[in-house]
Amino acid sequence: MTTTSTVLLGAQDTVLQTPETQAEIFEFIFNDTLLASSFVANIALAGLTILAIVFLARGVSDPRAQLIVISTMLISVVSISSYTGLTSGLTISFIEMPAGHARAGEEVLTMWGRYLTWTFSTPFILISLGLIAGSNLTKIGTSVAFTIAMCVTGLAAALTTSSVLMRWWWFVLSSIFFLVIVYIILVEWSAEAEAAGTSDLFNTLKLLTVVGWFGYPILWGLGVEGIAVLDVGLTSWGYSILDIITKYIVTLLIVMYVAKEPSEITAGSDYGATRKSKSAAATPADD
């Protein structure tokens, strides 16, 4: 005769194996300590980073320096919002892997909310790096466009269930867009940072960023979305560690430098103005 406890355990096992509602997904997350801690740790670190930025940059007055600071702060603003979505189960789904996948026919947890994080946060990372390097709006805008394309095609790779081949094709497209960004950072911006006098800081930032960013496609390939060598918890912590390095550590290095308002990154009170100042307008033209 089936006991009440057996029925309850069976019901719980069903919830944990095939969660469908947000409440069930939320329960699934917090029954996996490794997975839950990878989300909660980033919420805490993003919040602490925002507070640190406010404290470190409280005296910054140059508008160009302020733009860099705000860009770095928005990285953590996006992260804390996105990781809250992951933790709550709002931006997590279970999708069935297609034929040919290592876990074909199984419903696999997909953290598609991470792609939202990257889509909205990496542009601010690139804006900050581009400004530190002294680059122009064209190159900064190009890098932002390609990073959005990289993240969106990465999301497509994660969500495609029609064909394992199409999943990997999306992954290849995303990787190509990623290599364009790497070229801009390592070649174009490195040369501009040298000319701007910010190469000491920029070289450190580019290494942390580029080396860290190469870890994301590697984890994708090894994780449950790729060949499924790593389980969900390990994959999630891998992504979280990379986020800590490429977001919060990079952010603090930038803000500690910018807070001193060195001449290499400042631009004066007219920077970004849509009209000339009265003093500039009053200056007579040369005869």
Task: Draw up the topology in text.
Layout: H1 4-17, H2 22-30, H3 33-56, H4 63-88, E1 93-96, E2 107-110, H5 113-133, H6 137-159, H7 164-196, H8 199-222, H9 232-258, H10 278-281
Antiparallel strand pairs: 1-2
Helix pairs in contact: 3-4, 3-9, 4-5, 4-9, 5-6, 5-7, 6-7, 7-8, 8-9
Pfam families: Bac_rhodopsin
GO molecular function, one term: photoreceptor activity
Membrane topology: Multi-pass membrane protein
CATH superfamily membership: Rhodopsin 7-helix transmembrane proteins
Query: For the CA atoms, what is the radius of gyration?
Result: 23 Å
Reading the helices and strands in chain order gives HHHHEEHHHHHH
CATH architecture classification name:
Up-down Bundle
What is the strand tally?
2
Fraction of residues in H or I helices:
over 70%
Distance between the termini: 105 Å
Question: How would you characterize the largest beta sheet?
Answer: 2 strands, antiparallel
Q: Note the overall shape.
A: globular
Question: Which fold name is given in CATH as the topology?
Answer: Rhopdopsin 7-helix transmembrane proteins
Q: Taking all residues together, what is the mean pLDDT?
A: 89
Could you name the ranges where pLDDT drops below 50 across 5 or more consecutive residues? 1-16
